[in-house]
# Entry
Amino acid sequence: MAEKKRLRNLRSKDDSYRIPSGCCIDSILGGGLETKVITQIYGPPGSGKTNFCMQAAVSAAAQGRKVVYVDTEAGHSFERLRQIAGDGYEDVLRSCIVFEPLSFDDQSFILKNLGRVLDDTFGLIVLDSAVSLYRLARDDETASQVNRELSAQMAMLSAVARKNNLAAVITNQVYPLDGDIEPVGGSILKYWSKAIVELTRKNGRREAILRRHRSMEENARVAFAIDGEGIRDGR
Ligand SMILES: Nc1ncnc2c1ncn2[C@@H]1O[C@H](COP(=O)(O)OP(=O)(O)OP(=O)(O)O)[C@@H](O)[C@H]1O
Ligand SMILES: [Mg+2]
# Structure
């Protein structure tokens, strides 16, 4: 009987849904962030990654879903969140658990223990950024160990997203390569991200480009702008 129950629990369920980010980038994502998978947002500094994450957190909270927000670059985040959330700021704070890891080791500890805070009231986990503490921890000597740790973190994030039917969004930085840019984290983050969005900014014009998706047209793009209240349609 125990085997029968275990098999039943392992059967695939069509219960995934989308958490809207509440901005125009949803249009290329088919409505928002898919639950059960990791969505990666990458782009250069100032391209809007954190704005997007905050907007998604505000949107999830407005739908009555709780959020885990892992902020590795704690700075003026609460100030910006207050601007984006507007009158809903207190509600967003009540709906969010914000963690501020100070080291890559802290980041691993938080991700490993997410199961202790999550329940079915949560809809979104944000990891902004997945790689800033990784870059600090990584040098020639530590590279293979730190890469293994990053893979393990992504495996854990992916597992909790599946188990709890929630959306996970990570941000990634870029480095210059052959006159172009390349996301950090090599193949590791690419492997674990089922949806990937690039944010670009050229001559003051911002664009989001869908680089990978399982059910939406790849390379679809949408113009956006950033103002006091967050990401706005730029078309
Ligand atoms: N109140 C505001 N009004 C207009 N634009 C704003 C406002 N606050 C922030 N911005 C713009 O948002 C952009 C920064 O976006 P964001 O912090 O999301 O970038 P990021 O991709 O997370 O960068 P990083 O890699 O440095 O973390 C800047 O261009 C900034 O001018
Ligand atoms: Mg940022």
Observations:
- The first strand starts at residue 18 and ends at 19.
